[in-house]
Amino acid sequence: MAYSKYKWALSIRVMVLFFLLLGLAFTVSKLDFNTNLSIAIIITLLMAIIAVFSFLNLYRFIMKRFAEMDDFFESVKYRDFSRWFNETSGSQDIRTLHKGFNEVNKTINAINYEKEAQHLYLQKILELVDTGIIAYNIESGEVLWGNDAFKNILNVPSLKTIHFIKDRKPDLYKIIFENNYAKGDDITINIDNEKVKILISSSVFLIENINYKLIVLQNIEDTLNRNESEAWRKLLSVMTHEIMNSIAPISSLAETLQSKVGLSIQDSDNYPLDMNDLDIGIESIKKRSEGLLKFAKTYRSLNKVTTLNLSKILVGELFDNIKTLMLPSFKEKDTDLIFESENTTLEIEIDTYLIEQVLINLILNAVEACKGVKNPKIIIQAKKTIGGQTVLKITDNGKGIPDEIIDNIFVPFFTTKKTGSGIGLSLCKQIMLLHKGNIQIKSIEHKGTSVSLMF
User: Fold this and answer.
1) Are strands 438-444 and 132-137 parallel, antiparallel or unpaired?
2) Please, which residues bridge with residue 205 across strands?
3) CA atoms of 349 and 435, how far apart (whole Å)
4) Which spans in 131-194 are helix H?
5) Is residue 123 part of a domain?
6) Are residue 241 and residue 213 in the same domain, yes or no?
7) Exposure winner among 91, 341, 397, 432, fewest CB in 10 A?
8) Structural domain ending residue among the three candidates 225, 252, 281
9) Are residues 52 and 156 in the same domain?
10) C-alpha separations of 421 from 81, 176, 244, 266, 404 in Å
11) Counting beta carbons within 10 angstroms of the beta carbon of residue 352, is it exposed (0 to 12), middle (13 to 18) or buried (19 or more)?
12) Are 380 and 338 in contact (CB under 8 A)?
């Protein structure tokens, strides 16, 4: 729009000047200078003056706009985008031109503000990370930017130039600044007479024909120590959790047997001791203790296990072992534990001790899920599918698993329990994979959960 108005204003002035010059030429050609010399001179001078004024007006019109544009370009040259051009006075095209200049300045100011905000944001992030970062001028050694982590790793004060390190720690300077680590390397450096292992990488970049070097350091000694400590803490937590899961039913069964023996010693007539029950109970304790020992050894090298101690066992016998272990503790929990098998001759080839551990884990999880539920019930079923798979299914009517976490329940150390280790289900899955089987969970929140072990 501004260009259109400017075009019309310029065209009118050019046409006026053209017609004035044309009229002047016509008048000069028609006047009789011999008879009316004075009149001819006056008319000629008058039209010439008007033409000169018209030319000057056109010149000022054009030069004023060039001056405005030159003024704007001058401010751009010196990056003065704070200037405000008057939009309320002058001709309409000048005001429109000023408005355009102001819009450009506002846009550039907004871009600069955004870049500055991003720069500050990035700088704050880099200052907070544990990774040491420094960028410096290769020729002068002047530090362009460096974060606190870099100074802390090398134990140096604030740096204006890297020559400070060169003067005071020449060996460190040679290793860090003179060598190139384009692909990244782990090296050992000496900091205050202590050896520290760090991961280092470097690269060179160009800004305005000046070469800069970027160096990134990470103290992997501390990271390795923290990871090792955390791994040991989790391992101890997991082992304690899994061992307690097995010891609890053993302890409960032993307490029951001890109570029966004690009552029989005091009054054998009214409380006769059933030797068969005693033998079964002791045998269950023996087997579970052996299973616990085997579990500890297996867990220690679970990722290296390639063979299992497989044997065929009747599902009914497997269920009886679990029932003998778990029922005494269930009497106190007021929870129904039901075992169902559609075929009494159904056999399964498994590592009995490990699968018992899986079943104990899943039953205890079901007990936890049934807390606070009316008429809690846990059903353990065994069946053969049409495809020939043997499926052991543990179903409860507990609280269920929320949809937002069900995809994470097999992730090691993921747990929603305050005292849980987050390894139980992960370990169950690993044991099933060792059996070339699978584990699946279906759950409806507030209705219950079913876990299927498929062999």
Assistant:
1) unpaired
2) 212
3) 9
4) 148-154, 163-168, 170-173
5) no
6) no
7) 91
8) 225
9) no
10) 60, 42, 12, 43, 19
11) buried
12) yes
The answer on 100 and 27 residing in a single domain is yes
- What's the rounded Cα separation, in Å, for the pair 223 and 28? 99
User: Do 150 and 40 fall within a single domain?
Assistant: no
Cα 452 to Cα 336: distance, rounded to the nearest angstrom = 19
Assigned token pair, 423: 């390894």
Token pair for residue 42? 């006056």
In terms of domains, do 241 and 367 share one?
yes
Question: Is residue 170, in this structure, part of any structural domain at all?
Answer: yes
DSSP tag of 21:
H
Q: Around Cβ 229, how many Cβ atoms within 10 Å?
A: 10
Q: Which residues pair with residue 214 across a beta bridge?
A: 135, 203
CATH assignment of the domain containing 180 = 3.30.450.20
Residue type, 240: T
Name the nearest CA neighbour of 162 among 152, 153, 173.
173
From first to last of its 455 residues, the chain has per-residue pLDDT tens of 455 666 676 677 777 777 767 776 766 666 655 556 666 667 667 777 777 777 777 777 777 777 777 777 877 777 777 778 787 877 777 777 788 888 888 888 888 878 777 777 666 766 667 788 888 999 888 988 888 888 888 888 888 888 888 888 888 888 888 888 888 788 888 877 767 788 888 988 888 788 899 988 887 766 665 655 565 566 556 666 666 666 777 777 777 777 777 777 777 777 777 777 777 777 777 777 776 766 666 555 444 445 678 899 999 999 988 888 787 777 667 788 889 888 888 899 998 888 988 898 899 888 888 888 888 899 999 998 877 889 999 999 999 988 888 877 776 655 666 555 556 787 788 788 888 888 888 888 888 999 999 89
Residue 98, domain extent: 2-111
Instruction: Take residue 364 and report the two structure tokens written for it.
Output: 């205890």
Considering its fold, how many domains does the chain have in total? 3
Residue with tokens 């203790």: 289
